[in-house]
Amino acid sequence: MIKKYDYLVVGTGIFGATVAERLSSAGKKVLIIDRRPHLAGNIYSYTDEETGVEVHKYGSHIFHTEIDEVWKYITQFAEFNDYVHTVNTRHKGKLYPIPINLDTINLLYETNMTADEAEEFVTKEAEDGKKKYGIVEPRNFEEKGISLVGEKLYKAFLKNYTEKQWNTSAINLSAEILSRIPVRFSHNNRYFMTAKYQGIPKGGYTRMVEKMLESRNIDVKLGIDFKDIKETLPDEITIIYCGQVDELLDYELGVLPWRSLRFESEKTENGLGEAVINEADSDVPYTRTHDYKYYQIHQPEIVKQKISYISREYPTDFSKGGEAYYPVNNEESRKLYDEYVKLCNKKYPNMILGGRLGAYQYWDMDKAIKNAMDLVGELS
Ligand code: UDP
């Protein structure tokens, strides 16, 4: 049965789906499996019957990219609406735009500075912070944050949120994480400021993945674990594995560190009035709340209804067998990952690791698609 396939793709998330689709277009026969009972990995969404709200089961996913090739590719499988993501963050009971912009600065300092004045002011705050803490070349998230915006803005909007998300002091975290949320001295409040394209698929993410896997060359099997079928695989089949490599290899070298999330959801008439509100303070145990209906701007009747479907997002520790969301990237974990890759190559010479889980990378959806497209380009 399994003999008729050229490739086995393990995982139906956006990376696996793109790989399967690209291979099938090149005439290859592909079997794609997922151990979950549903498609689409962590971008899975479903419609809540009562409200018509598209619930993003594993937290908000907003498609955004600067890569023409990726946009051209993904729009073959879904029509996207014109949603533009903006986020407010709550600090001491007040809402502020995040990423930090001119309004965030003026609201926090209770000033009315122009863009130039604010830039000069924040530069001075940053210089003062660097002096106070003896920062020369920022070595971690905390030093980078202070060097960028000064102590007050850093402590209000970046430090506590980040420490909640990663459950460690910001001095143990990479400065690189900050590049995801730049500072601007304008009223621009777009979360993804440089995204050339963004939106939400009108029919939902799961439908989009279904369309990607519609080809006659692809068979999809859900609720199947790789371990259940590995003994039945022919030697010549190539496996694209989008799961966690440490689990695959029975944690032989130890556990790769991840952060996980837990969602508490409810239907309520006290919605947010926008899609996401972050919680910047340490006394609120969750990092953000999602109000999914605001993504459906192409269905005004859904947005206008009184009821909202909201989910509060609690960062949690990851344990073996749990859901992995964010790789805890540091020197030690990268080294361990590299060791696992070597071991994997030995044990499964026909296997390629990929996707957020398999590559142990903090990728956005577009990055995962781009990597998948490049991989298939190299294979064919
Ligand atoms: N971040 C922060 N304050 C916020 C939002 C984000 O300090 O209000 C930091 C935090 O360290 C987080 C990183 O920025 O890990 C990336 O945030 P992003 O929203 O990109 O995370 P994702 O959407 O991938 O969960």
Describe the structure.
This protein has 380 residues and is an alpha/beta fold. It folds into 3 domains: 2-82 and 197-257 and 328-379, Rossmann fold (3-Layer(aba) Sandwich); 87-180, no CATH class; 259-317, no CATH class. It is built from 12 helices and 16 strands. Helix 1 packs parallel to helix 12 (365-379) and helix 4 (115-133) packs across helix 5. The longest helix has 26 residues, at 141-166. The chain is globular, with a radius of gyration of 22 Å. The two termini are 24 Å apart. The model has no long low-confidence stretch (mean pLDDT 96). The structure holds uridine-5'-diphosphate (UDP). Uridine-5'-diphosphate binds at residues 89, 98, 157-158, 161-162, 165, 177, 180-181, 278, 280.
Q: Which architecture of the largest domain would the CATH scheme give at its second level? A: 3-Layer(aba) Sandwich
**Helices and strands: which structural class?**
alpha/beta
Can you tell me the number of structural domains? Answer: 3
- Adjacency order of strands in the biggest sheet: 7-6-12-13-14-11-15
Write the layout of secondary structure elements.
Blueprint lengths: L6 E4 L3 H12 L4 E5 L10 E3 L6 E3 L6 E3 L2 H7 L12 E5 L2 E5 L3 H8 L5 H19 L7 H26 L30 E3 L5 H8 L5 E5 L3 H4 L8 E4 L3 H4 L9 E11 L7 E4 L8 E4 L8 H5 L3 E10 L8 E2 L3 H17 L3 E3 L1 H5 L5 H15 L1
Parallel strand pairs: 1-2, 1-10, 2-9, 6-12, 10-16
Antiparallel strand pairs: 3-4, 5-8, 6-7, 11-14, 11-15, 12-13, 13-14
Helix pairs in contact: 1-12, 4-5
The structure holds uridine-5'-diphosphate.
Uridine-5'-diphosphate (UDP) binds next to helix 5.
